[in-house]
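Hello, quick one for you while I still have it in my head. Could you read through the record and tell me how the tokens relate to the sequence? No rush at all, and the record is pasted right below.
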Amino acid sequence: MAGTIASQRHTEESFSESDEIDLTRYLGVLRRRWRQIVMVTVGVIVFAAIGVLLYRQLTPPVYEANATAAIIRTSTDVRFDERFTTSSDQPNNMDVNSRRTALVALVKSGSIAQQVIDELGDQLPLRLQSPARLLDTVTAETATASGRVGTSDLIQINVKAGSPELAAAIANSWAKAYVQQVNSIYGQVPDDMLGSVEAQLVDAQAAYDKAQANLESFLATSQLDALIRLAGTTGNTLTILQQGKVNALNAYMDSLVSSYGSIVQTYVTAQADNQTLAFSKEQEGQRARVATYLDAYNAAQVDTFAQQNDRYRSELRMYYDQLLRTNSLLTAARTLQNQVANSTGGDTLASSALALQVLNLQMVNAAATTPPQTGTDYLTPGQPQPQNKDKQQTGTDQQPSQRQPVQPAQTTPLQIQLDGRATPANAADLRKQVDAAVASLESQLATLQQNIDKLNQSLLGGDSFQQLNANVPADSALVQAIADAYPSLFQTGVFSGTALRANSDALLAAGQAQAAQFLSQAAGDSLPTANSPDAPMAATITQLEEQLRTLQGQIEVERGRNLQFTDERDLTWESVKALSNKQAELQLARAAANSEVRLSGQAVPLDEPVPQVSLAMSLVLAAAVGLLLGIATAFLRELGDTSTQAKTS
């Protein structure tokens, strides 16, 4: 034992001395035992290659799918009432990274895993239907759009599974569940907030109902309206009494003033009328005489045209009447003409002949009432229309007073033979007589229409009127009488000086005495006033004023209580309205689907599995490990050989 220990110390001292000198001894060991080092290295590489190949063969392939969610904060600000607002925290620049870290951490959530398991169901293998194991297949990180890991608003959800379809299904389901959960946490109105507002709304509604009931109870028992009506009636009565008192005093004073004024005015008017009586009557007589002359002068000019106009208008009316009668006879004659044309028996022929005799009598009567011929050339039946002589005249027109009326031609009276003998021998004779009557009436009707048209034209043109613009001769007795009498209106007459010669001192003195008596009463305060204590209805008015003041005090008390109950009701109603608006705001904010993240990209199945162990990298690592292990083995063998040699020596 002692020898062994001494040998080890000698060897250690040998190595120590060698180390202290140089590394040649170590390099010599490597040169001498390089075969062992290579063999160990090759052996490790071989074993590593065999292990990697066995691992690849025994381990199933793993596929990876990636889904992305973008951090996009959207919110809806609903405000029905500006007095109360609902606000949520808005992250500043310093809180963005912490919010991003929290959002990435929320990917690994057990509730999301359970939601994915519930959604996919039998699509998942049995080993992944546990939330814990399913979580092991999911990783999350923030990455840029190119897929590199870094700080961004893009969250990448990575899922590994045994098939590309399963990995993509888990990734998409996980991303959707993640978006829903994050938005429900950050984007939706919390249930406790909405519940608190609803509870406050219930309390406010109860308070409003109580205040409304109190107001209704007060209004049901309040005498406010009755007091207001009574006060109004009392005030109106008081106003009427006061106005009546004032009106009575005013009427009395007006009557008194009017009486004294009438007395004084009577004296003054009597004096003036008496002074001007003779002169006024004289002037009235002169004005009446001149006015009568002027009326006669104007009437002489107007009546000249008025009489002619009335005569022509009467003639025109008579022509129109004759036209109506002739038109009626023509209608009867045409009816008889149709009857004769359609008659076949002897009885019909006899009745038609009798009707013809009656028609002839009516035509004779109508012809006997022909309008009188005045100064216009009218036509008679069968007479041609004469030429208008005025159209052939040249030069200036003649004055109306120089026009010579055209006398009408001699009219041939309508001659109708009335035969009272038997009926005509045959229907042909009767038909000829009826046709002759119809033709005669038609000719008469045409002639009447022409005469009416001509008379109308004469009236419209004024050709039939004579003495148009006629004036009374300046040298007539009437004009001379007017010229002589008119200047006398502006001259003094026999009684013009009577007003100046009248003595009026007595009447004036009496009027002045009455006026002085009235003025003395007004100056001595002997006339009654509305404010005097002994004025009419003074006690009644005072009593009503006191009653009105009492009623006004009671009204103010009732109004104060009414205002108190009304304000309480209005205040509670404002609370109910504000809370109702706030509840609607929260419900709309929840329905508006505010979001914190959104699904930006869905996972697609990939054909290539995820590389698990690289053979080249494994061989490189095995070569390095084998080299180190070979060097270590070489030094250990060298140490062992050195110890053996030491023992032998």
Notes: The CA atoms of residues 293 and 482 lie 6 Å apart. Residues 1-5, 375-422 have pLDDT under 50 and may be disordered. Residues 224-342 form the longest helix (119 residues).
